[in-house]
Amino acid sequence: METPAIVIGAVTTSEASRKRKRARQACDHCRAKKIRCNGENVNEPCPNCIDRGNVCVTTGTSRRAPRTIPAVAASTNTSSPPPPRAANVTANSRPSPDSTFVHDDNVGTTEPDEDVLHASPDALRERSSILPNDMTNWEYHGPRSFLSICSRPAVKWVSRQTGRLDFSETASQFASDISRRLKMDADLSVARAPEPSAEVAWRYTEAYFSTALDASLGVLYRPWFERQLSAHLAGRPCDSGPAWHALRNVVYAAGCRIELSKSRSFKEASQQAWLYFENALAVYARLLFYKTSIMGVQALTLMAYYTQNIGTPCLEYMLSADAARLAFAKGLHRAAPPFQGLTEHDVEQRNRIFWAIYCLEKQIANQSGRSSMIDDEEVTCPLPRMSASGDDAFNIAYCDSLVRVSRICSRIDKRLSAVQCSTMGPAATTQVVNQLHAELEGLKNSLHEKYKLHLGARVDASCLPKDFRLDQLVYLQYTYLTAMLNVHTIWAYPWFRTLVGLSTEDKYRDHIVRSTEIVARTSREIIVMTEHINFRAQTTVPVAFFAPIYAMISLFIYCLDRGKSSSDLATLDIGTGYFARLAIDTDFALYVPFVRAITSLAYGLEEPTQHQEPIVRNDVIEMANIGEDFWQAGLLDGDALMQLEDWSTFSRTSPA
Predict the structure, then answer these.
(1) What does the pLDDT look like over 325-374, one tens digit per residue?
(2) Which label site among 14, 303, 360, 639 has the fewest CB atoms less than 10 Å from its CB?
(3) Could you tell me if 26 and 159 lie in one domain?
(4) How many domains does the chain have?
(5) Looking at the domain assignment, is residue 84 inside a domain?
(6) Burial degree of 117 (CB within 10 A; 0-12, 13-18, 19+)
(7) How many CB atoms lie within 10 A of CB 378?
(8) What secondary structure does DSSP assign to 37-101, as a single string?
């Protein structure tokens, strides 16, 4: 009788052939010793194991049948790659059924198909990914970030208010444009930039300490750095490790960018400075995994601050996270223990380093809508308290003010996070909003008494408070004003009101109107204050981009929600002109057509309504009529109330 055949893929063999093939599989002992296994039958021990008295065990290896992957099949059966899916942030962010993997739990000995063996690297990478290939380059932005206007509920609301269904495409493109700046476009250069001459190195050092905004926070003690640099340039380096290499190169990069911005174009200054920054970035891994040090914390902190500028990719999110982790590992978040025997100056320096990291990390959390990684309840590090000596760049007034504003920003992000607001209900949310607003007002009064600061008020460049530069004052103003927006947008943005479960009752009407008016007033102040922004390659992202775009979006929403007025349209025009100037002065490195789009939508609203000034009574703003549409439950109906992640924004960091 003929032996029945076994079909394996497209190959047919006999039972005897199958046994011979299985017999050739080496036993566990022979495989471990890397010797030839002479066994002829899988049911009998091999000669090697018999000679050594070992138990002959052969562990069979089985292959899982290859999963059916449409994307792989498509990429291997056509001469051109499949068209990428549209980067539409309004679509459901979950993979669609036709793009997910078809998982097969059947285990067999099927050989891989020929097309899978010759699949492209992209296709093979997609097979091993938990997401389809066109979703792995997406970035998450929380519901409280300025990009929430690109979320599904927000796009739906704007489209209904304006009657423009194509707004989803505009929002999608805007989110993608922003996210592409969060990553580098190319690998690091193979060649490293040579060290500058001694004369140039000193010039860059002077430019950094005298002009860079982060130098005012005292991450580096100038006399110490200059002693180190002097020894290095003289050929007698005190330290030749990766931390010193990164530290001096990031100072070169910052100083080079400042110096070249005076005489060269934005692009030239940014590109030349980036070469020095690449020198620092080249030892990034060694700062974290080699011989770690506090100098490494300083280097990572300055690298994070360096990339928080309009002239570079915005890498500060990851850099600041690593700086914070390394600072935690060194115990900088705690008060210095007495047994370390540190001098008063050493303790002061470590405190300055930590709080510089803290301010940056909290700013990034605020900007991205992501959770902060620093738990304030675990921080016992004292605030800096010593004024700088005559030759140091540290500014106690600026540092102290920024730290105090940043600590309130931290409480705002924690107490008004999307998760918190979606669970604690409107009544509790109202109480938290009022408490945080009172904290901001109290801080404003405190800093006015201490430093004569007028936070939230127009800046007079001809009459600055003592000990403050204009760029420091604008940064502080914008940090404070965006914190005020974060407190009140929870009520002022219609899709947020739905997120927290607000009903159509009149119970919360006064609170909503009050927050809406505060958001509008704050947005106007931010936009008008852009006249004090000078575009240089070292200009920070929070000042040049984040605060103005946040204000433009908030005022646009106010116009759609409450009705446009001539003054608000004019203010939007000011903001549009500002972003046009930003594009020109940065050689279109920062071009934001989204601003023009929302201004045009505001102008195109039908039946414009004249804005009515509110009547303030007992700190509650009352309006004669806030519009019927405001209270229509159908404006954001039930199908928009998906799970919390649907209120977030997922945008691409690079084209699919």
Answers:
(1) 999 999 999 999 988 889 999 999 999 999 999 999 999 999 988 899 99
(2) 639
(3) no
(4) 4
(5) yes
(6) exposed
(7) 9
(8) -----TTS--HHHHHHT---------EEPPPB-HHHHHHHSSSSPPPPPP--TTS-SSPPGGGS-
**Is 416 within 8 Å of 433 (Cβ atoms)?**
yes
Asked, for residue 45, whether it belongs to a domain, the answer is yes
Q: Residue 640 phi/psi, 5° resolution?
A: -85, -15
- What lies within 8 Å, CB to CB, of 240 at 6+ separation is none
- Mean pLDDT over the full length of the chain: 80
Residue 441 lies in a domain: yes
Q: Which residues pair with 13 in a beta bridge?
A: 6
The token pair at 66 is 């290859």
| Alpha-carbon span 186 to 586, nearest angstrom | 20
Range of the domain at 32: 16-61
User: Could you give the count of Cα atoms lying within 13 Å of 593 in the half-sphere of its Cβ?
Assistant: 9
Q: What is the largest CA-CA distance in the chain?
A: 106
Which pLDDT belongs to residue 25? 75
Identify the CA nearest to 350 among candidates 293, 285, 404, 303: 293
DSSP annotation string for 491-536: HHSHHHHHHTT--SSGGGHHHHHHHHHHHHHHHHHHHHGGGG----
Q: What is the DSSP letter of 290?
A: S
CA 75/CA 83 separation, integer angstroms: 10
Using the structure block, give the residue that is written with the tokens 């924004």: 649
Cα–Cα distance, 68 to 53 (Å, whole number): 46
What is the spatial distance between Cα 247 and Cα 265, in angstroms, rounded to a whole number? 26
If asked whether residues 116 and 155 sit together in one domain, one would say no
CB 1 within 8 A of CB 23: no
* Ramachandran angles phi, psi of 159, nearest 5°: -60, -40
For residue range 43-81, list pLDDT tens digits in order. Answer: 677 877 776 767 777 766 544 444 443 333 333 333 333
Q: What are the E-state strand segments in 109-265?
A: 138-141
Q: How many residues does the chain have?
A: 656
251 phi and psi angles, rounded to 5 deg: -70, -40
Instruction: Check residue 599 and give its pLDDT.
Output: 97
| Share above pLDDT 90 across residues of the chain, in percent, rounded to a whole number | 55
Same domain, 315 and 168: no
Calculate helix-pair angle for 198-211, 222-233, nearest 10 degrees: 170
> How wide is the angle at C-alpha 540 spanned by C-alphas 481 and 452, nearest 5°?
45
Q: Quick check: helix, strand or coil at residue 283?
A: coil
Q: Are 419 and 490 in contact (CB under 8 A)?
A: no
Q: Are residues 78 and 51 in the same domain?
A: no
Over the stretch 516-535, which tens digit does the pLDDT of each residue have? Answer: 999 999 999 999 999 999 88
643 vs 576: which has the higher pLDDT: 576
Question: Phi and psi for 212 in degrees, rounded to 5?
Answer: -60, 135
Nearest one of 477, 604, 597 to 547, comparing CA atoms = 477
The pTM is what?
0.75
Q: Is the CB of residue 305 less than 8 Å from the CB of residue 360?
A: yes
Could you tell me if 478 and 526 are in contact, meaning their C-beta atoms sit under 8 angstroms apart? yes
Does one domain contain both 69 and 37?
Answer: no
CB atoms within 10 A of CB 85: 15
Copy the structure tokens of residue 555.
Answer: 């005022």
More confident residue, 606 or 324: 324
Residue 340: how many CB atoms within 10 A of its CB? 10
408 within a domain of the structure (yes/no) = no
SS3 content of the chain, % helix, strand, coil (to 5): 60, 5, 40
In angstroms, the CA 42 to CA 45 distance is 7
**How far is C-alpha 497 from the geometric centre of its chain's CA atoms?**
25
Contact call for residues 553 and 559 (beta carbons, < 8 A): no
3-class SS of residue 100: coil
Give the pair of three-digit tokens for residue 286.
Answer: 């060694």
